[in-house]
Design brief:
alpha+beta, Aminopeptidase, six-stranded mixed β-sheet, 6 strands, 25% helix, globular
Length: 125
């Protein structure tokens, strides 16, 4: 499932957030892409947090991971803000623009989502 990222007060597409899952397996993968002008403004964090909430609270997932290029420091920082932990570093996992790239795998479990500081469910009134 891919969802558009838009701002309430700004017309136009700012990016997308994706949730992939295998029904019945309890696991998923989250990803995001943001336009350069939208980076560093919290849109990615807000969108990814909403998709994690959907995965854990509505779809009953047990584990959600994010896979990213080791050189993508902004996405690694976003994973940290979401409460995800670095689980794996796959050296020379794929070729990108003629060079080998290293993949990082971050993840979070449903229990961690529910109990994590500021990343879990939004408190009710």
């Amino acid at each position: 499932m891919a969802l558009a990222i838009e701002a309430v007060d700004e017309p136009g597409l700012l990016g997308e957030v994706v949730l992939k899952w295998l029904p019945g397996m309890g696991q998923g993968e989250v990803g995001w892409t943001l336009a350069p002008a939208a980076r560093g403004r919290g849109y990615g964090t807000e969108a990814a947090r909403a998709v994690l909430r959907l995965g854990f609270e509505d779809l009953g997932m047990h584990r959600i991971e994010a896979r990213l290029d080791e050189l993508n420091h902004a996405s690694a920082a976003l994973c940290g803000r979401l409460g995800m932990r670095l689980e794996a570093r796959h050296i020379d996992k794929w070729r990108y623009k003629g060079q080998w790239a290293t993949e990082l795998v971050y993840s979070i479990l449903a229990d961690e989502w529910r109990t994590g500081p500021a990343v879990g469910p939004t408190p009710g009134p």
